[in-house]
Amino acid sequence: MAAMSKLIIEVRMNEYAGRNENRHVPWTPQEIAAVATDCREAGAAIAHFHPRTAEGGIDFNYETYRDIVTRIKAQSDVLVHPTIGAFERAASAEDRLANIVQLAKDGLRPDFSPLDMGSSNADVLDLKTGRFESLSGVYVNTNETLKYFAETLRGIGVKPYLVIWNLTMLRPVEIFHRVGVLDGPLFLSFGLSPVALSLHPPTLQGLQTYLNFLPKGVRSEWSVTLYGGSLLTLAGAIISSGGHIAIGLGDYAYPELGQLTNADLIRRIALIAKECGREIATPDEAREILGVAKVR
Q1: DSSP 3-state assignment of 144?
Q2: What ranges do the domains of the chain cover?
Q3: Considering the entire predicted model, what is its pTM?
Q4: Which class in CATH covers the domain with range 9-290?
Q5: Given this model, what pLDDT does residue 128 score?
Q6: Is the N or the C terminus of the chain less surrounded, counting Cβ atoms within 10 Å?
């Protein structure tokens, strides 16, 4: 068995989460940059964020992206991973990627951009009532769109962050690599969830189904996210199996543990890694493991 790489920890600090369950979800550029810095100090190598308004609304304005990335880069060396928006941003492929392209033009090139590798229903369950919160959410990513994203990101030196919500999204990854659209090493993000039924169930069996179909003929590193539930319960098994961890208040508020901060969650993962005997990657080490171009 090949030696494991060091553990890459990513903070998923806010997504579209409110503050009703946890007051520490960051919204403003100042808050997002401060959380990125705190999480870097706690052991995170990557900071993923969604720009938000001061009231917590969705914000895709380029000026907000620029403000956030400028602040993060000025405060630490953490790798930068902005969102491009999912089904809530119905726009052309060019428009969806425009902020990433403009950041690169302005000398603020992020390290990653998401590529959600397929289309799916995007409704989630309310676990308290057992009913869907909506019934018509559809997230569309055509192969034409994904090819445009991959080729554009290659041109500006941004690493595709390959988001996999279910097994049908994993197969195109191998094909895209085979035809020369995606370069190795691949960085795969495997999604688990008890509430988003397009994702695999949050169990080791759900994870193993992904691992059974890892792309052949190219080196891959894989990470796990868990939306709507605790990733801490699976973290030890993931870390011991060679996977990486992406965790944060954007995916789950962890109300059973009180008012934890994002940095608290990163410290918990770092402790689990220590117990598993696996070292944590710095941003520079993560950059080398994943083949991410030097930005600064």
Answers
A1: helix
A2: 9-290
A3: 0.96
A4: alpha beta
A5: 85
A6: N
